[in-house]
Design goal:
globular; 9 helices; about 190 residues; two-stranded antiparallel ribbon; mainly alpha
Length: about 190
């Protein structure tokens, strides 16, 4: 998530959608708006339906589909790019549900440690994917510079960013095997 929203989204939107730097930054901000609205909404939905896994699975599959549209079919989403990025942010915000799951599957005395480890893994994902996408871009494009910026082809962006929807599908598959807590901790009353 952070690999696109924080690093590669603006250069991608500039190159593929022909946006200016400021317009691309404004469009990427729709992802953050989706997260801001989606995180509490996903928590509420999860509590309301009494199911932690279902929002993660649905959110990751829809997020994968939307991101695939974004990178492989830009002509389909060009006119509604902000809306697609906002909905992508909403879908991807289902990741927040892993924090209560970490608390609920552990004994009360380890809840803080479990949440801290979960946060470490979430942050490590961004730390891993940001340079990984850059390396894939470098390898697939080669080194050629336009001015003081790397010039990446649309195909190189598509190739490098493909790891994001694949990762979303992997999340959906792994979530199937996650123990369902239904919002009840291991040692709750």
């Amino acid at each position: 998530l952070s690999a696109f929203a924080e690093v590669w989204g603006i250069p991608y939107l500039i190159r593929v959608y022909g946006l200016s730097n400021s317009a691309a930054a404004a469009k990427v901000s729709f992802i953050f708006l989706g997260w801001a609205i989606g995180c509490p909404l996903m928590g509420w939905i999860s509590e309301k339906i009494g199911n932690r896994r279902r929002p993660i699975i649905i959110g990751s599959l829809l997020g994968s589909a939307l991101f695939t549209l974004l990178i492989y079919f830009p002509f389909m989403v060009h006119h509604c790019l902000g809306l697609v990025l906002f909905i992508f942010g909403l879908c991807s915000s289902a990741q927040v549900i892993i924090f209560p799951i970490a608390r609920e599957i552990n004994v009360a005395g380890l809840a803080g440690t479990a949440i801290a480890l979960t946060n470490l893994l979430v942050m490590s994902g961004g730390a891993l994917f940001q340079p990984l996408i850059g390396k894939i871009l470098d390898v697939s494009t080669g080194t050629h510079v336009r001015g003081n910026l790397m010039a990446f082809s649309i195909e190189s962006f598509q190739h490098a960013l493909s790891i994001i929807p694949v990762a979303f599908v992997i999340v959906a598959v792994l979530a199937i095997f996650l123990r369902e807590t239904r919002g009840i901790g291991r040692y709750s009353a």
